[in-house]
Structure formats: structure tokens, C-alpha cells
Amino acid sequence: MAKASPANTDQTINSLRDTIVAMVRRDGPDLSARQLAVFLTCYLSDDAHTVRGLAAELNVSKPAITRALDRLKDLDLARRTPDPMDRRSVLIKHTLKGNAYLRDLCRIVTETAGAAQEKVAPPARKAPRARRAEELRRAG
């Protein structure tokens, strides 16, 4: 695995910070890191998810997953339905509000990553002849 350069690491962590700040400032729910991990795990995969499966995938306890799902359910970001194959088990399903939340989060991540990239990347430099032609065109 290639080691990340300090500049890339700084850019990544600043982009993460900017994303979190944007999420906190917007109207809507704030999710804890665990709640967001459960939400994204459910929404970024087409697989059916159960409490047991999420606990194993995220390496946290089933009660911790249940608490996160309780919050997501209260916010209408996820819902639970009985598993038709195993009535003892519950499947986690998407909601319309959850889909909208994911779209909003994706937009924010894209915007903050783009802003971070602009801060790092120097503006494109034009060749001297092209720069001179543009200056003459502006002058009139």
C-alpha cells in the first residue's frame, strides 16, 4: 500500500472536517459517527442488512447497532421489516428520506472535496504568448 503524502493527508482530513461542518450547519439531523457508519453501510450496498450482519461488518456490538438503528428509524432514514426467510430476523430497508439524505451528503462531500482540491492546486498557467494575447484583448 502506497504511503499518503502529508499534503494529501492534510487535504483529506480537511475535506472530512469541511464535510462534517457542512452537515452540522445544514438543516436536518446530525448523526454520530456510528450512526453515519450504519447508515452508509446500509445505503452503499444493495445487500440486505440485519443487526447481526451490521454488527459483524462494523465490528461493534449488536446493542450498539440497535441504538444506531433506533435513531435512524426515529429520523425516518431507515426502517426495519421482518425477514420473510427468517421471521426471527429483521431487515434494514431504505426510506425516501434516507435516499434524499444520502444525495445531500454526496453533494456536500463532492463540493468540499472540490474546494479542497482548488485550495491545493495552483491556477493553470497560460503560455506567455497566450497570456499576452489575452491581455491585449482585454485592453481593447
CATH topology: Arc Repressor Mutant, subunit A
The number of E-state strands comes to 2
The helix count comes to 6
Order of helices and strands: HHHHEEHH
By CATH reckoning, the class would read Mainly Alpha
User: Into how many domains do the coordinates divide?
Assistant: 1
Report the major sheet: 2 strands, antiparallel
Uncertain spans: none
Strand order of the largest sheet: 1-2
Q: How much of the residues is beta strand, in percent?
A: 5-15%
What is the end-to-end distance?
54 Å
Q: Specify Rg, calculated over alpha carbons.
A: 22 Å
Q: What would the keywords be for this entry?
A:
mainly alpha, elongated, Arc Repressor Mutant, subunit A, 140 residues, two-stranded antiparallel sheet
Give structural notes.
The protein is mainly alpha-helical. The N and C termini lie far apart (54 Å). Strands 1-2 form a two-stranded antiparallel ribbon. It has one domain (7-139): Winged helix-like DNA-binding domain superfamily/Winged helix DNA-binding domain (Arc Repressor Mutant, subunit A, Orthogonal Bundle). It contains six helices and two strands, in the order H-H-H-H-E-E-H-H.
